[in-house]
Write a structure and sequence with these properties.
The chain is built from three helices and seven strands, in the order βαββαββββα. With 103 residues, the protein is α+β, with helices and mostly antiparallel strands. This is Type I-E CRISPR-associated endoribonuclease Cas2.
Length: 103
C-alpha cells in the first residue's frame, strides 16, 4: 500500500536530487514529498543514506505507532532523534559538543 513520505536532503550530490525527483515532488529546495510504496521508500532511502556524505537527510513516513510516523536520518546534523519510552524526541546537540566530538 502506498503512503505519503516527506524527505529532506541537504547538501547532497546533484545525481541524488535527480533520482529523488523521479519519484517525488521537490516542493521547496531540498524538500521532497510524494506517495510511494514501502519498497520504493526503502530503496530511495538506501540511495539517500549511501550518498548523503557530509550532507544531511531526514525521512518521515507513516507508521502504526503512538506518534503515527517514524523518522530516519543520515549524515551529520545537530538534531538527532532519540527514542524515549517509545516516543521519538529530537535531541539538540550544542555547537561546543560538536567541536569536542570532532577531536
Amino acid at each position: 500500500m502506498a503512503s505519503m513520505i516527506v524527505l529532506s536532503a541537504t547538501a547532497v550530490p546533484d545525481h541524488l536530487r535527480g533520482a529523488l525527483t523521479r519519484w517525488l515532488l521537490e516542493v521547496t529546495p531540498e524538500l521532497y514529498v510524494g506517495t510511494v510504496s514501502a519498497r520504493v521508500r526503502d530503496e530511495l532511502w538506501a540511495s539517500v543514506a549511501a550518498c548523503t556524505g557530509d550532507g544531511m537527510s531526514v525521512l518521515a513516513y507513516p507508521s502504526d505507532n503512538e506518534q503515527g510516523f517514524e523518522l530516519r536520518t543520515a549524515g551529520t546534523r545537530r538534531r538527532h532523534p532519540v527514542d524515549f519510552d517509545g516516543l521519538t524526541l529530537i535531541a539538540f546537540q550544542k555547537a561546543s559538543q560538536e567541536i569536542s566530538n570532532a577531536s
